[in-house]
Amino acid sequence: METLQQLAPDLWVAQRPLPLAVGDIGARMTVMRAGDATLLLHSPVKLDPPLKQALDELGPVRWIIGPSKVHHLFIGDYVDAYPGATLVGAPGLAEKRTDLTFHFVLRDPPPDGWPDDVAVQPIDGAPWMNEVAFLHRPSRTLVLTDLVFNDPPRATNARLFHRLVGASGRFGPHRLIRFGLRDRAAARRSIDRILAWDFDRVIMSHGEIVASGGHAMFERAFEFLPGPRT
Question: 26-52 burial by CB neighbour count: b if 16+ within 10 A, else e?
């Protein structure tokens, strides 16, 4: 398994197994390098010595990101490994992880010192998840966690789970995510703000990365949300 996979200048991912009761759905951390050469770690995966060495070779870790109330399992490892980094989290995550000290809750606008080349958009309307979306402007990449899956039709890991939730062989939010969008008008407004971004690639935590054409795929995936588009 490759320690870090480079997708574009200043953009990498680290993929690791994530065995759960439903099977191994896999996990992916996105590493973005800002204009000041510091690193942002989105949705950290399990930290091991080879991964730490690879990160240290890229530059200093400045931001550790807990991008939703669901993606937080390995954050503590990175807080310990990079005590000088700033820990930021989705709304509600600090209350869930009281063992950690969060420096900022990710809302609009982002905290002081946040790099201009990374945009932030909370996904409203799904309070159980409170996912926050990110745009890495230099690479035109949308970075998500669970809002969309992109599992190939012949995926072998957690096959039954993917079939039951309608995630197998499709890009978009599966049934559980759709059910969790309790305020669909608020979700629609958040999705429209994301669609105003200039992105082509889409990285999500589970499934295959969309290398190109991601903007149109993302727009189609959320056509089910009602309301005027802003």
Answer: bbbbbbbbbeeebbbbbbbbebeeebb
| Element spanning 201, H or E | strand 201-203
Domain count, the chain: 1
Q: Give the pTM.
A: 0.91
Give the domain range for residue 48: 5-221
How is residue 168 annotated by DSSP? B
Non-local CB neighbours of 101 within 8 Å, separated by 6+ positions: 87
Give the amino acid at 182: R
Could you tell me the CATH number of the domain that includes residue 173? 3.60.15.10
HSE of 202 in the Cβ direction (CA atoms, 13 Å)? 26
Q: Does residue 227 sit within a domain?
A: no
Mean pLDDT along residues 178-187: 88
Q: For residue 125, what are the CA distances in angstroms to 89, 119, 140, 227?
A: 17, 20, 25, 14
* Burial bucket for residue 197 (CB in 10 Å: 0-12, 13-18, 19+): middle
Which tens digit of pLDDT belongs to each residue from 101-132? 999 999 868 888 999 999 999 999 999 899 99
